[in-house]
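input
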Amino acid sequence: MPSFRIPAKLCVRCKTHRRLCGLPRCPIIERFRAVVKSVVKIKDNRVEGSTPPSFVVGEYGYPKVSIYLGIPPEIRGYEASLYDNPKEWWGRASLLDILKLRASMIHARLRVPIPKPEYLYEKEISLAAISEKPVDAEAKLKSLPKPRLSIKDMIPPIGPVATTNSLKIVDNPKLHRKLEQIIWDDVKAQEALWELYNSGVSIYIIQRALSAGLIGSKIRRRIVPTRWAITATDTTISRYLLREVNSCNEITESKIFFKSYLGNRFWIIMFPGPYRFDWIEIWHPVTVFTREASKPIIIYNYENWRGKARYLDGGYQAARLSVLEYLSSIKRKAHVIVVREITPEYYASVGNWHIRETVRNALASGGRSFTSIDELLSIIRHRSKYVAEIVHEHLDKLSKQRILDEFI
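output
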């Protein structure tokens, strides 16, 4: 632990992975690991089970990186799919449920050079990673894994890790027909991502396909660290959606949407006007992230109509994708404000999938119309007086920029 006090706002911006404090190890992660006990039991050095699929590419040691294939010991079929399944988790699994699932799955590790995606393809590891159903796998481990749970901000926690002597896929992966075609096509990565998305391939499978080096011009294909692949996928698809949205008419009424999950509350507010996306994060004090902060920490981010944001952030990109999906589906554009309130109930990061899915579900709820700022603030105040104050302050700043003049 550091002998100096790290500003809580720095931890919120860092989200455990950017090392903004300059320390070699994150104090939050180290503190969390100390209290997490793995429930995995292995009798020998062999692990057999179905990967959900769960596939992660690390970023340290680049250009030779670690590949992690998650296998829940002796768990197969539909039950195995629950170990890495954001769609099934949302609204059903608690934070503790997710942590237990992840802590009880062995992650077999291989070291692979970035320019060698064909190595993963030949062993069918990359094909297992993009399967639409769990795939049976066997791993012979060099040693027993140590009880641990690695927490990242953009991906689900990684359970016990063990280097493997051999990793064998013993079942036939089931691939989406369009994805099978894209693997053999010599198509630029951005075009391939958009084509797959329009063909109904899950965003999570697309992310893993890019990470495994199965997408892009054949001579330029590379294994991509998972965090980079998630951001690249969200950003690329959002860019295509934004082109569609900017060509649409404005929404005709203002609406507010709300949803809460895993100690995170989301308000999505839409006004008639040119496209703009504003993001506000409100971190409660005295949480695992804000520690001894005496008051909430507020983070702002926004972008203009061209889609250029102040700074890149995984949660911001995930929410933005869901918003653009919705606007594209109703063929309208709008000025959108998304408020994310993080309460002390969110005591461990489980990836930004829950942001993407919670915003999606909020927008699918239909929302509630309002005709004045006072009515909007009243609706928000019913759930949180503090969030209402922050939104009021933000709208006041926007009005001085003449962005909401016609509405206010």
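quick obs: The CA atoms of residues 66 and 312 lie 24 Å apart.
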